[in-house]
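Task: complex structure prediction.
Instruction: return structure tokens for all chains below.
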Amino acid sequence: EAQVTQNPRYLITVTGKKLTVTCSQNMNHEYMSWYRQDPGLGLRQIYYSMNVEVTDKGDVPEGYKVSRKEKRNFPLILESPSPNQTSLYFCASSAYRDTQPQHFGDGTRLSIL
Amino acid sequence: GNSVTQMEGPVTLSEEAFLTINCTYTATGYPSLFWYVQYPGEGLQLLLKATKADDKGSNKGFEATYRKETTSFHLEKGSVQVSDSAVYFCALRSLMDSSYKLIFGSGTRLLVRP
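Output:
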């Protein structure tokens, strides 16, 4: 089954404690992306990757890091989380064509206290 | 820059009513347009898409037509069911945007009552 898998689904943690949200896709997609979803704002892109070792900032990259060492994995790293990063996070992947839809994971709800 | 505007929600309807959720966009070039649906506690699922002017996307009884002249992509369904209750997002994606990202509207919550 084609899917994007995120872990964990839920996490409550404290300010400053480094955390990583993993994302893996099994569709051999070149393009992967992270979004955050906040009430009234829809989804906003954090980082994206066109292929292995190729990553770039989206619209709201501050406080986040990513890496793309393998095609299937695209982890999101919060090195020093702060309360304003409390949000619902989605990983997505797609083939590299504008007509192709992005496939989304089920989301990770992060609460930073 | 590119943007998507959706009608404010929530939209509350009775079962079997007709649904329209308005979506308009601003974009350079000719973007691809999408509707995504988010059921409670779940991720976003692609509902339908249209990739060029006058294309009609359809799925599960939902339809939307890519209208270049009015820069719109309104979602419609002739008879809604309780199971259609969800948040609906209109989105665009443009090859002119080097980030290749989806640009979303703010979402419209639909509540269908029995």
